[in-house]
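If I may wish for something, please sit down with the protein I am sending here and say whether C-alpha cells and residues agree:
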Amino acid sequence: MWKEYNPNPMKRRVEDCAVRAVAKALDIDWEEAYALLSAAGYAMGDMPHSNAVWGAVLRQHGYYRDAIPNKCPDCYTAADFARDHPKGTFILGFGQHVATVVDGDIYDSWDSSNEIPQYFWFVKDKK
C-alpha cells in the first residue's frame, strides 16, 4: 500500500526522490540524507541523485542490490513487490525514480505503486 512520504523540510515537491528514499531507508532526516548524497556525489564527481551515488551511499550502510525476478518484467509493479515483501526495508530502482518499501508499504511523495521496478536494494539479513 502506498503511504505519502515527503520529508522535504519545505514540503516542496522537487526532484529529490533519492534523498527521500535514502532518508526513509536509513531512518534519518531529509537534511542528513541530502548531506550524505551531496558529499558522496562530490567525491565521485557525480550528481547527488544519480543511481551510482545513492547506490554507493546505501552500500556504505550495509545494503546490497539485486535484480527483480524476471517472471513478468513488464508487469511486476512496485505494489506487487511490496505485497511479496511484507517485512523489511527495500529501496526500489525504477530507472529515473526511486522509492522505499518498509514492511510492505511504499513510501513516496506520489503513488508509484504501478511503476515497474528494475532492481532493489536490501540489507542481507532482511531479504
Summary: The mean pLDDT is 94. DSSP finds four helices and six strands in the chain. The helical segments are 17-26, 30-44, 51-60, 78-84. The CA atoms of residues 94 and 117 lie 4 Å apart.
